[in-house]
Amino acid sequence: MKKFIIIGVAGFVAKRHLQAIKHNSGELIASHDINDSVGIIDSYFPESKFFNDISRFERFIDEFKRNKGSIDYLVICSPNYLHDFHIKLGLRHGMDVICEKPLVINPNLLSGLFEYEKKFDKNIYCLLQLRLKKNVQKMKNLLKNKGLKEININYVTPRGSWYDYSWKSDEEKSGGILINIGIHLFDFLTEVLGNAKDFKIIKYNNRESNGVLYFDNLKVNFNLSLNSKKFETKREIIIGAENINIDQNFSNNHSECYKQILNNNKTFLAKNCSKSIFLVNKMRISIGAINN
Asked: pLDDT tens digits for 98-122?
């Protein structure tokens, strides 16, 4: 049975990770969050430890390793701007790391993370559900069969007004909508189509962005939005007259991703999930969201 610990267990996405660990017969040893609204742990791992102080959490890790053996995985669900720090914490303590998207906001941090991977002989994985092989292959087959030069993607994940007052709406902490929401889409596209040759951002604000990506022989029009009058989630690719729903089982794909990671599937290794981080960084520079 694989042993896990989590940082950021009070967060929006942590429930999916708890479910995935449980579904894959893992054991949650302990978790950390600065917030203590974490009663959801009881629904999955009522015997696990919780710490809202990071130093006590690290002390527990050291004592557990000394007295009971190794911990296999650190799962990171903390705010995006803390991922780099928490990934290094996990590697230093001899754990493989499973990190929620995005791996980092700034691609300049990647080389340091890869050095840590090599130094401590551990792996970093990034949770990007759309890059599951079945999704990638389906998209490749559709594009090959249709032979189109242009497609449209509508990616709507509604969020209430709370979003505007959380760290997620802070460009420096989340990376903004292009990376906080769009990274799933851009990672999927670069996995299917390779590197984008060019792009154009038409609209950008905290809650919405749209533009165009240019790949070899294919133009992709995209729309990202947190707004929906009916508060309906839509993740759809429009290929010709066909509307492909990529929202099906999206929330449940964490369990399948965990299964593949535990089986050492290299698809989710950090070094294989980096192209989209560089792409989004260029986009953000182009609109003045960050300095070059």
From this structure: 999 999 999 999 999 999 999 999 9
Of the candidate CATH numbers 1.10.3720.10, 3.40.50.12780, 3.50.50.60, 3.40.50.720, the domain formed by 2-129+257-264 belongs to 3.40.50.720
The tens digit of pLDDT for each residue in 240-249 reads 777 777 766 5
Residue 162, Cβ density class (10 Å: 0-12 exposed, 13-18 middle, ≥19 buried): exposed
CB 264 within 8 A of CB 73: no
* DSSP code, position 269: B
Q: What is d(CA 57, CA 62) in angstroms, rounded to the nearest whole number?
A: 9
CA-CA distances (angstroms) from residue 69 to 50, 62, 72?
A: 19, 10, 10
Fold of 132-252+267-287: Dihydrodipicolinate Reductase; domain 2 (3.30.360)
Check: CB of residue 61 under 8 Å from CB of residue 42.
no
Give dist(CA 196, CA 211) in Å, integer.
13
Query: What gap in Å lies between CA 122 and CA 90, rounded to an integer?
Result: 9
